[in-house]
Amino acid sequence: MSHKLQALLIAAVLGVSTLGLAACDSNEGPAEEAGESLDNATDNAGDAIDNAADETSDAMDNAADETSDAMDNASDEMEDATDDHNN
Known about the structure:
The chain has helices at 3-22, 30-86. The protein is an all-alpha fold and 87 residues long. The longest helix is centred in the middle third of the chain and has 57 residues, at 30-86. The protein is rod-shaped, with a radius of gyration of 37 Å.
């Protein structure tokens, strides 16, 4: 067999093999689908936890601000009451 014929035969085999692989069914099996669903569920749960943590942090910041304001007001009122009593 000549080198040209061998090269042509190899090229033909590689071409057919490549087309065969490209034509393979790319549908995932049940295990892959279950794994993908689990990945999505995990991602969604992680996002929900992050959102809940952010909301909790915001609520705690607001509560701390309100408590600080209330303590400042109480301190001012006590100072005013003390000033009124001393005068």
